[in-house]
Amino acid sequence: MPNPKTEIRNSIRRLRFDHGEMTQDELGKRAGVTRHTIMALESAKYFPSLLLAFRIARAFGVGVDQVFEYVETNGRANFERR
Amino acid sequence: MTESEKWAIWTLGVVALTLIAWFALTAWSGNGLVSNAAFSLLALTAIPRNSRRHFIKGARFDEREQAIANRALLAGFRGVWLALTAVWLAAGLTKGWSGTLVLPVWVLTSSLLWAVVLLLTVESVTTLALYRR
Fold first, then answer.
1. B40-50: per-residue pLDDT in tens?
2. pLDDT in tens, A40-81
3. Quick one: how many helices (H) and strands (E) in chain B?
4. Of A22, A38, A66, B74, which alpha carbon lies 20 to 30 A from A55's?
5. Smallest Cβ distance to A46: which of B2, B59, B64?
6. What is the ipTM of this complex?
7. For B115-128, b where at least 16 C-beta lie within 10 A, e where not — what string?
8. Measured between alpha carbons, how far is B130 from B72 in angstroms, rounded to an integer?
9. A48 and B59: CB-CB below 8 Å?
């Protein structure tokens, strides 16, 4: 049986908007990474380590599951959206 | 542009300068030993402030940049390994596997420096490619 393809989506852009249009640079400073890495994360060109995922979530004051979402490629998330 | 990309562009420039100097010295002197002096230009790769980035752990490189740097370095070593294999195969196939090569010592030095040039080139190009992917 073939394994379903999965991906990790994130809500960083929306969360930045919700936090007073926080800049990528500011988020990067709070999470300890560069603005370029935040850009790569938002465009799903890079998937963060668990440590960075927690740092980003903490920067927004939310849980990791509210920032990152584990999704199967058929579009169905493996858990309900909040 | 990130520090790594600046380093890669600078390094490609140094490599190009080294190659120009090497060919110019070869054309002028006709002596490979003299041409080896051109490789001293490779020391210019140490000028950028992040030139030792593979050996420094800290805030300067975040995890993505470090991952790209590691992949680029690995690509560089793969390039050198492939080149070495190609040279060994070419020598074996042309001279015979029991044949003998008699070479001046400076050829060995030159070979190592060419390997450095290849490594830096592949590493720089890979760095630029990974940042633009």
1. 999 888 887 66
2. 999 988 899 999 999 999 999 999 999 998 888 765 554 444
3. 4, 0
4. B74
5. B64
6. 0.73
7. bbbbbbbbbbbbbb
8. 8
9. no
SS3 of chain A: helix, strand, coil, percent, to 5: 45, 15, 40
Residues of A in contact with B133 (CB under 8 A): 45
Most distant CA pair in chain B: distance in Å? 53
Return the residue in B2, B3, B4, B62 with the most chain A beta carbons within 10 A, the one to mutate for interface testing.
B62
Total residue length of chain A: 82
**Contact map slice: A 21-80 vs B, CB within 8 A:** 32-34, 36-37, 40, 45-46, 48-49, 51-52
- For residue B127, give both structure tokens: 């760095």
User: How many Å apart are CA B112 and CA B108, to the nearest integer?
Assistant: 6
pLDDT, averaged across chain B: 88
